[in-house]
Amino acid sequence: MKSDIPAVAFWCLAAGALAVVVLLVRQQLITRALRARNATLEGRVKARDEEVRHLATVRLPALADAPHQPVLVPGLLDRRLAGTGFEQSLQDVMDLLAGVVDRAQVRADQSAKAALKASMRALQALANEQQMSISDMQDRHDNPDVLRDLLEIDHANSQFGRRAQAIAVLCGSWPGRQRASSPMTDVVRGAKSRIRDYRRVQVRTQVELAVVSRAVEPVVLAVAELLDNAARHSQPNTTVEVNLQPAHNGACIVIDDAGVGMDGPEVERATRVLSGQQVLDVTRLGDPPKFGFPVIGVLADRYGFTVSVDTRSPYGGVRAVVFLPSALLTQIETDDAYAAPPASVTPSEPAAGALPTRRPPSGAEEESLREGLRMPEPEPSHAQPQPDTEPEWLLGSTTGGLPKRRRRQPATTQPTSPPPAPAPAQGRSAEEIARRMGAFARGTRSGRATPDDDEGNPL
Amino acid sequence: MTPPNRREKGLVRPYVVTDGRAHPTRNTFDLVTLVVAARDRPLGGLSPEKRRLMQLCMPGALSVAEVSGHLQLPVSVTKVLLGDLVDSGHIITRAPIPKAQLPDAQILQEVLDGLRARL
Amino acid sequence: MDSALASDDVYLRESVRTAVKLLVVGHFAVGKTTFVGSLSEIKPLRTEETMTQAGAFVDDLAGIKDKTTTTVAMDFGRLTLSESLVLYLFGAPGQQRFTRLWQDMTRGALGALVLADTRRLEQSFGVMGLLEEHGLPYAVAVNHFDGAPVFPEAEIREALDLLPETPLVSCDARDRATSVQALIALVQYLLSRTTPHQENV
């Protein structure tokens, strides 16, 4: 029996050892599995870290730069994450940002447009006001030297006005002026009037068609941009040729330059812009801003004409064709353009219309002087020129109350009459009276002054 | 106030009308210089304003001031166009009394008689 | 050719060879346009026109329309006086700031008729001074406005400091006859001055 004891012990030990081995192996397996899982998890965490970094450094900035062009925004770094909830979360972040960027950009564009529009319209109004003054002066002065200067100012002002007008149109404004329907020739020459190199523009043909009133200004503006473009992109010694052609269902204005022309991609880009279909972002016109073609696109789209630049001109440069559909055309009024215009205003009729209120002159001295003087009648129009009263010519008044003056001498050397003796009036010295009358005249003048009287002429 | 047949005055600027020139080729025009169109000259190649001027002056004589008024162009611009047209033989002028000359008694008498006849 | 253009009231007679001009001057609303209009055989033409609505803004660009009335027009009229002689009348604005224009207009003018309004006589002073400076002989016609006070001639002469020989007449610019009378007074005066050494226009 004694010999059984060791055997029992052996088997016990063996069994124990086996158990331990089994346990160890199992433990080993478990550990290995855990390690592997750990590694996988670690990898995934790292991948997500990378993915988040990728999101922050690459994908979101790309999105911020080009919110409307999703193709340009890179996708996931690690394709294994595709379809996971993690990817969805990242996409949510992307979408959120895209929305924010979009809204911010629209807001920025809107406020930029609003600010630009308001400023440009103010400038446009000034340019127009100035043009009227220049026209008035051109009419008034019959002198070549004066005319020469006025033509230069007029030319500069027209270009200035066009620039302001173009930017205002880009920002959603109307072209600004209502004009009478005008012959196509005049429309093109009106456009020619607004560019720097107008003398290089030759209008070769005439057609007996006119542009309808509402389209005159838009077409003038669009053609002006095309002419300017043509003149800028060709040698100064070449001409820009304009031909007018009747066409099926409309008429064409064909503008040929002898410049360098445009290559394929340029033509493609220009065509896209000229269609007016492209969304315009005024904050991205470049520096210097290129608004010529975008303006044409906006006008063409809005008024229903088309502009193409996809043919070469016979002179090697660009041929731009403006097609005006019949809806924008009308017949030239064949009546005499030189019939006497009706005398519209007859300022000579004694004033009977609405009379503006006039502030009486103030000051005791002037009041006392007013007693001896008939007050001038209130003026019939609020915007008439200043009455011409030279204070120093006033010399008191006659017994019947008429104001008196002193005769003048010719500016030339030979007087036609002996100089009149200055007549002191009513005990006061002539100078003193003249001075007081001057004060009076200033008073009445400032009383008559209206906001429109901005000539600022010291009389 | 604006009849439909009115030309758009501000559209084509005067420097385009005169091709940038302010000085007439000749300095012989006064407001009352009388001008008349030569009937035998072709109108082809003339600018729209010159053509209108020719059409205006074809039926009879007018003063420079009247031409300017009918065409709705400034007097000074009208004179530039007239200068060209006289040069090219399209327009014939009848000179007014020369500037420096004294209004002679005979003309004044004629004016006076004419006015009296109108009473 | 347009029929209106061919009519005789637009064009001068074939026989007309000489054109002379007289200025009709005066301040705003004194009656120049009416005066020229009642004498002229042609519709009053203006060498200058205000820009009308056609050129004005359609939208809210404020401040433009008000500007359209500021223009001072130079109107003129025409009287054919004989087979060979035509007289042009130019209405010239009286404002001092048109001095430059004056130099162009007085060139070649025989003389000027100053229209005056006794209710605002002082507004004629500037224009009379200009005429005197230019050495252009003139006559004064007081345009009679309804309801305006009437002054003795001597008093108006005193107020205007007229030379004894300067004609002073009264007229109604709306009335052709009195307007012609005023021109006659002017031309008679001009005729009386035609001794060569006096003139330096």
Automatic annotation (TrEMBL), chain A:
Protein name (Swiss-Prot/TrEMBL): histidine kinase
Chain segments carrying region Disordered: 340-459
InterPro entries for this protein: HATPase_C_sf, HATPase_dom, TCS_sensor_his_kinase
Cited PANTHER family: SENSOR HISTIDINE KINASE TRCS, SENSOR HISTIDINE KINASE YKOH
Keywords carried by this UniProt record: ATP-binding, Kinase, Nucleotide-binding, Phosphoprotein, Transferase
Comp. bias intervals (Basic and acidic residues): 367-380
BP terms from Gene Ontology: phosphorelay signal transduction system
UniProt keyword annotation of Transferase present: yes
UniProt superkingdom: Bacteria
EC class: transferase
Keyword Cytoplasm carried by entry: no
Organism of provenance: Wenjunlia vitaminophila (Streptomyces vitaminophilus)
Catalytic activity: ATP + protein L-histidine = ADP + protein N-phospho-L-histidine
EC number: 2.7.13.3
UniProt xrefs under Pfam families: HATPase_c
Automatic annotation (TrEMBL), chain B:
Superkingdom of origin organism: Bacteria
Pfam families in the record: DUF742 (PF05331)
Cross-referenced PANTHER family: DUF742 DOMAIN-CONTAINING PROTEIN
Protein name stated in the entry: DUF742 domain-containing protein
Automatic annotation (TrEMBL), chain C:
Gene3D superfamilies assigned: P-loop containing nucleotide triphosphate hydrolases (3.40.50.300)
Claim: Iron is one of the keywords in the record: no
Record's keyword terms, sorted: ATP-binding, GTP-binding, Hydrolase, Nucleotide-binding
InterPro entries linked to this entry: Gliding_Motility_GTPase, Gpn, P-loop_NTPase
GO function terms (MF aspect): ATP binding; GTP binding; hydrolase activity
Entry-linked Pfam families: ATP_bind_1
PANTHER family reported for this sequence: ATP/GTP-BINDING PROTEIN-RELATED, GLIDING MOTILITY PROTEIN MGLA
Family designation: Belongs to the GPN-loop GTPase family.
Protein name: ATP-binding protein
Source organism (scientific name): Wenjunlia vitaminophila
Taxonomy of the source species: Bacteria, Bacillati, Actinomycetota, Actinomycetes, Kitasatosporales
